[in-house]
Every structure is written in C-alpha cells, then in structure tokens.
Amino acid sequence: MRFKRTGAIFTAFLLVIPTHFVSAATQEEKLQSEGSYSEKSEVVYATLEANGDQKEMYVVNNFSIDQPGKIIDYGPYTGVKNLTDLTEMKLNNHQVGFTATEDPFYYQGNLEGRSLPWDIDVSYQLNGETLPPEQLLGKDGKLEIHIDTKAKEKDNPFFKNYMLQISLPLSSEIYQNIQAPDGTIANAGKNKQVTFTVMPEKEESFVVKADVTDLEMESIEITGIPASMSIDTPNSDDMTDDMKSLSDATEAIDEGVDELNKGITELHQGAVSLHGGSQEYKKGINELDQGSAELIEGSKSIDESLEQLSQSIGSHSDQMNVSQLQELQKRLTDMANRLKETENHLADLRDRYTDAYDALDKSIAAIPAYDISDEEIQELKESDADPKIVDELVKTYTAARATKDTYSDVKKNLQAVDPALKDVTSSVHSMRIYIETIADQLDKSLDQTNWDESMKKLQQGLHALSSNYKSFHSGLVDYTDGVARLSKSYGELHGGITDLTNGTQELKTGAHELHDGTSQLAQSTNDLPDQMQTEIDQMIDEYDKSDFDPVSFVSSKNKKVESVQFVIKTESIKKEEDKQDDEQKEEEKKGFWDRFLDLFR
C-alpha cells in the first residue's frame, strides 16, 4: 500500500518537474533576447551650494517595458545603479546595458561635469552688506535673498520649453515681515512658503526681504517641468464687442476734437483780425496824439495872429493904407488855407479812426461771453483731457474775458472820439469859412471909397473871430489832452489783445497736436478688436508648449522619451548637528521599500 502511494507521488513529480523546467527555460530565453520599451522618463536630481553653484547631479531613469529582454540606454554616466532588482548593469563608453522583465525598470546614473540648462545664482545681503552663506548662520537683522536665473544657452530646448518653480520654506520663528514683490507667500502650517515662477524663455531676478533672528535656512527647492499644458482659446466675443465700443468712442472723440480744432482755428483767425484792427486803431490814436502838439502849436499861432490883427486894426485903422490892407488880406487867405489843411487832416483821421473802431468793435463782439465757473474749470483739470491743452484753454478764456472787460470799460471813451473829431472838424470848417468871408469882404472893400465904414466892420469881425477862436483853442487843448489819455490807456488794451492772439496761437497749435493724437488713436484703435484677438493668439502661442516633444537630457541617442523633469535643491544654512538630525529624521520617514531600494543606491 505504501509502495503504491510512493509511486503515485513519484509519478506526479515526474509530471510537474518537466513543466517547471520548460517554463523557466522559456523565461530565460526571453531575457537573453533583445527587449524593448514603450516609453522612458528621466528625473534629473541636482544639488547646489547655498550660493547656487552646482555640486552634484544624478538621473533616475524609468522604463515602461514592452518586451522583456536586453535593453540599451545612453548617457555620459560615471556610474550606474540598478534600482529595480539585483541583476548586473553594464556601463561602457556612455552605453548602459541591462536586462528587464515586464515590470517597470529603474536605474540611477551619476553625472559629473554636466551643467543644468539654467544658471542659478543666489546671493545674500544682511543689513545692507553682502555676505557669503557660511557667515549668515545665527545672525540677526534685515535679510535680502536675491535669486537670478539665466540660460546657459538660449537655444536649449529645456530653457525654451520649461518653467521653473522656486520655493523657499521660511520658519515663522526665524523670519518676520516677509516681502516678495514678484512671488506668492503662502502658509505652510505655522511657517511661510515663498514661491516664484520663471516662464519658458525668460530670465528673471527675484528678491525676498525679511527681518531675521538667529538665522537658519532650509534648502531652496527648484523644480523644472515642461510648460506643456494646452491653453484653450478664450471666448473673446464680449471683449471684442467692448473693444469695438472703445474704437467707436475714440472715433467720436476724434470727430469732436476735429470740430474743436476747427472752432479754435476760427477763434484764432478772429483774434488775428482783432489784433490787426487794434493795431490800426492804436497806430491812428498814436498818430493823433503825436500830432496834437503840432495841432496845438498851429492853433496857438492862429490865435496869436488873430489877436495881433484885431489889435493892429483897432489901433492903426486910420493909418493903414492900401498896401497894408492887401497884406492883411493875404495873411487872412493863408490862414484860411492852413485851416483848410487842418480840416482835411482831421477828416481823414476821423475816417481812419471810424474804420479801425468798427473793426475793433466787431472783433471784440465776436469773442464768446461764456461764464465758466471755477468749479467747472477744476472739473476740466481733473478730467482725462490733456493738461497742457486744458491750461491753454483756461489761459485763453481768462485773456478773452479780460479783453472784453477792459474794452467794456473804455468803450465809452472810444465812442466819444468820433463825435469829438466831428465837432473839431466842424469848428475848423466854420472858422475857415469865416476867415475866408472876411478876406473876401476885405478884398471887395479895397475897391470902395468908404474906408471908415469898412475898417470899422473889419475891426468888429476880427475882434469877434479872435474871441471865438480863443474858445475853440481852449477846447482843442482839452481835446488833445483826452486823446493823450486815450492813447495811453489803449496801449494797455492792445497789450491784452496781443496776449489773447498769442494765446489763441498756442491754443491752435495745441489743438492741432491734440487732433493729430486723437486721429492716430482713432486710426490705431480702428482695428482694435482684430489687434486684441491677435495679441491673445500670440500670448497663447507664447506659453502653449503642448506641441513640444520631450528630448533626453543626457543623450540625443535616447528615444521614446515621454518626460524629463528637474529636481534641484540648494544646501541648507544650518548647524552641522541640525543637518545630521534632519538626515536622521528623513531616514526615519522612509518605509521598507525605500530602505530596500537604498541597498542598491
């Protein structure tokens, strides 16, 4: 019975053993053949000095096995470690050989003399003094940490397509009043974490400021990952509608400024016309004032001559002969001719004055009599209008109001000049006619025989003429005094008109420049919706790296690279015993699998 049972067991063993050996033999054959993988990833680990100088680097390679067997990888490694199993790996002339099963395969390759795609510089200032990291430990004061990132080579694919995330863990017991203008500050438990981001193809400089006590510092952690997120094009219809409204508004502003420019141009033309009329008036009133002395002198001479004639005729009428009367008649005729010239001069002056005054009055009337309050002016200054144009508008408005007010004050005096000139001219005309009449009567009297009667009438006429002329001469003196005062006061008014004209010229220039600006603005915003969409597309294209095909960091011969990442850390600034404690704590956190993998590292 026992023999039968033993035989049965032996028979079963014979049946199982061949099957086991066949399966093992098949697996061994597979491992000895050439294998393949579907994809590969690389994680580049780098350690930096506290100032950013590169220290150590290694790469953990991960393969998704498609076909078990022998696989070749490439990289200028100084040494490799199998992180998956106990099988031997071969390294020869930058070529790594290993045997993989169907499970994912990991190995570590150590690199020396290989640079990161970025230059990372970290510097420290304590209380305004730049210090090396080793001199910062335990110090107090105001700390600044400067981090600068630059490209090793601008055409490096990792610099062009990868973003860097820089993190600084800061203990709240050590760091207070933390400032990071270009970064974000987040709570990490009871501590703070400062984070900066460097976009692809960018070189950045960052600064962290804080008040520090008994300085210690954890490692700065830097992660480099591909900016391969796909960015969906946003729906910009609402924005383009707003941009269209803005474009229409700028066009309306341009049209309004164009009307303003035309109005200011017309105002300036009116001011120029006003200045021309004022200039003519000023010239005429000055000529009149300058001629007053000559007019008074001539009138005084006539007055003295008349008085002498009257006295001469009265005292020597019985002794006068024909020749003397003929001389008297000639002098009277000359006097009448001189009065005729004065009359013509006054008439011409009156015509010129009337034309100048009419031009001046129309120009002044053309200036708008707007009453703009100080509050309205202040609102205009606080608006979005060009401050230079606003100032010019206010100055022009002030000058225009001052001109109208001044003109209103002197208008009565200006209006009185024409009637006065008319009265003076009429008086001169009457006296000329009177003297001519006397001269004619005297000429006729020379042919008569009744000398006594003629002399008597002549004496009476000359006496009356002399008396009337004295009154006329006194009025003429008063008139010329008024002309002198008017000429002086009008000089001030003309100065204001000149300032007004200069102001409208500046305003015209400013309005023209403003119109040029609004025209350019309207032209540039005419296709603003299309420009905005183009800018959006360009920004999306700039940061959308979804079409980037990953490449190996260690060798261009490596294919099927799915991803490459960079994990970079600086050395901490701590006491040696604290560093050892941190390493021990890190060791305690590791699980069985981590400790098992460390056997192969």
UniProtKB/TrEMBL annotation:
<keyword id="KW-0175">Coiled coil</keyword>
<dbReference type="GO" id="GO:0016192">
    <property type="term" value="P:vesicle-mediated transport"/>
</dbReference>
<dbReference type="InterPro" id="IPR010989">
    <property type="entry name" value="SNARE"/>
</dbReference>
<feature type="signal peptide">
    <location>
        <begin position="1"/>
        <end position="24"/>
    </location>
</feature>
<feature type="coiled-coil region">
    <location>
        <begin position="322"/>
        <end position="359"/>
    </location>
</feature>
<dbReference type="GO" id="GO:0016020">
    <property type="term" value="C:membrane"/>
</dbReference>
<keyword id="KW-0732">Signal</keyword>
<protein>
    <submittedName>
        <fullName>X-X-X-Leu-X-X-Gly heptad repeat-containing protein</fullName>
    </submittedName>
</protein>
<dbReference type="InterPro" id="IPR023908">
    <property type="entry name" value="xxxLxxG_rpt"/>
</dbReference>
